[in-house]
Specification:
- The complex is a heterodimer of chains A (about 230) and B (about 240).
- With about 230 residues, chain A is mainly α.
- Chain A is built from 10 helices and no strands.
- Chain A starts with a helix and ends with a helix.
- Chain B has about 240 residues and is of the alpha/beta class.
- Chain B has 9 helices and 10 strands.
- In chain B, strands 6-7-8-3-9-10 form a 6-stranded mixed β-sheet, sandwiched between helices. A 4-stranded antiparallel β-sheet of chain B has the order 2-1-4-5, covered by helices on one side.
- The chains are: A mainly alpha (about 230), B alpha/beta (about 240).
- The interface of A and B includes residues 134, 149, 229 and 231 of A.
Chain lengths: ~230, ~240
């Protein structure tokens, strides 16, 4: 109980360490999410509406990558960014940038695969009409993205949920360095192992609230879309 | 530029030669031959499963037949797409407002002369619904919007696949009126309908299809007064044909 009370004191007193960790977590996850959305949404849409040899294999690969263990992704990005790796010269290992890269690798397949399913359903509905109207190529991709905007928002929020809760990959490539690469999940793991349950619980509570907010947003978006027949 | 009845229709005559399409083990189009030379409204009739909608879809390029040839004027189907428009039985509208649906169909008009989009909505009595989500319209209103969208491109050929099925009488009459106006302006109209009353009201020519082939092609007057084939007689008498 003491630890829980201390956790709430840290939150409500706007503890500097706690909020530094919180802000870094959100910054890393949002930047990764932005990059992943820019890559994943058009990729998922392209795979849903374009027929080419190997399309099924690409979709299969995307779905397989969606379930990739984060520690494996972390290891791959580590090997890529380590001094002796192909991108070692960039000096990104143990920086927030490395964490962003790892999260992009993790959540891009999630966003692409989920959006692929959403757009495939829409494609069944729209394809004849778009053909009739001569809507093809980039214009079609953009139209699908715009019309599936609410469903895609929930895909993006799912990606954010995965990013913010991720620990395995970011601890490998970020190193959990205090005031530099320490994010909520890695801090919780560290503080728990140190026996500092107050900070761990405080961070856990914030993470839980964030998760609640994201899910509330998902439900809100779905309800708004359904009300306006945009779902 | 608006079409007019005096302008020659660039997609006429429509020649369909030995059109074949097999689905599963069944020949749904079995060597169908058809020539449509005249402008005006051609109504395609026939029992369920006769191949009417498939014929329209082949004509519009939505389906590639297993064999056979279609030419529209001097053009192949693929080259005539810009001059065709099709309205489907179940209108598919974008998840946007009524006006945005039209703007998407005609981005150039939306940019250069947005007033034309409002006029298009006025022509189908939907001007006061411009800012509403299109999918919240009633079935009849959605179909009227789909027709307005199709007409924005000023097509030389307008194809309607049971576009008024399951609509209320007022919506049917409004759509029929628009179709007649469009035909009078020189657009060739081909529509599939099971509604004999509608065919009598609209058709200049009837093409009767049975078992994937043209059983009869004649003027509307002749078809309804003296059908030439037993199958057409039975259809008009309301007998079920399969």
């Amino acid at each position: 109980m003491d630890a829980l009370a201390e956790a709430f004191r840290l939150i409500f007193s706007l503890d500097a360490d706690l909020f530094e960790i919180l802000l870094l977590s959100i910054r890393v996850s949002l930047v990764a999410l932005g990059i992943s959305a820019v890559i994943g949404l058009p990729l998922g849409t392209y795979l849903a509406i374009t027929k080419f040899p190997g399309r099924k294999f690409c979709t299969l690969l995307l779905n397989a990558l969606m379930g990739m263990p984060p520690v494996v992704v972390g290891l791959m990005v580590y090997l890529l960014l380590s001094r002796s790796g192909p991108l070692g010269w960039m000096g990104l290992l143990y920086t927030p940038s490395a964490m962003i890269i790892a999260q992009v690798v993790l959540i891009t397949p999630i966003i692409a695969a989920l959006s692929n399913q959403v757009i495939e359903n829409l494609y069944q509905e729209y394809s004849d009409t778009f053909y009739s109207m001569g809507v093809t190529g980039r214009r079609a991709i953009l139209a699908y993205l715009v019309d599936a905007r609410y469903a895609l928002t929930t895909c993006i929020l799912a990606g954010f949920g995965r990013a913010i809760a991720e620990v395995g990959a970011v601890i490998i490539v970020g190193g959990n360095i205090d005031h530099l690469t320490r994010v909520m999940t890695t801090a919780i793991a560290l503080e728990t192992s140190k026996g500092n349950l107050a900070l761990a619980l405080g961070l856990g509570a914030v993470l839980f609230v964030l998760s609640l907010l994201v899910n509330a947003l998902v439900i809100g978006v779905r309800e708004y879309a359904a009300k306006r027949q945009y779902a | 530029m608006l079409r007019s009845a005096s302008m020659p229709n660039s997609l006429l005559p429509i020649r369909i030669n030995d059109l074949r399409l097999v689905k599963g083990n069944r020949a749904v189009l079995g060597g169908l031959d058809l020539v449509i030379e005249e402008s005006g409204i051609t109504v395609i009739m026939g029992p369920n499963g006769a191949g009417k909608s498939l014929l329209l879809r082949c004509l519009h390029g939505l389906i590639t037949p297993d064999c056979g040839a279609i030419t529209l004027g001097s053009l192949a189907v693929a080259n005539s797409r810009d001059e065709q428009a099709m309205v489907f039985q179940h209108p598919v509208l974008l998840r946007r407002t009524v006006l945005q649906n039209l703007a998407f169909a005609a981005p150039e008009i939306a940019k250069s002369a947005p007033r034309h989009l409002v006029q298009a909505l006025e022509s189908v009595n939907l001007a006061d619904r411009a800012d509403q989500p299109a999918r919240m319209l009633s079935g009849g209103e959605q179909q009227r919007l789909a027709l307005a969208r199709a007409l924005l491109s000023k097509p030389a050929l307008l194809i309607l696949d049971e576009a008024t099925a399951s609509l209320d009488p007022a919506s049917v009459l409004l759509i029929e009126s628009l179709v007649k106006t469009q035909s009078a302006m020189g657009t060739k109209v081909i529509l599939v309908s099971h509604d004999q009353g509608q065919a009598r009201r609209l058709a200049d020519e009837i093409v009767f299809i049975s078992n994937g082939q043209v059983a009869e092609q004649s003027s509307a007057k002749q078809f309804f007064t003296t059908p030439q084939t037993p199958v057409a007689k039975a259809y008009l008498a309301g007998e079920i044909l399969f």
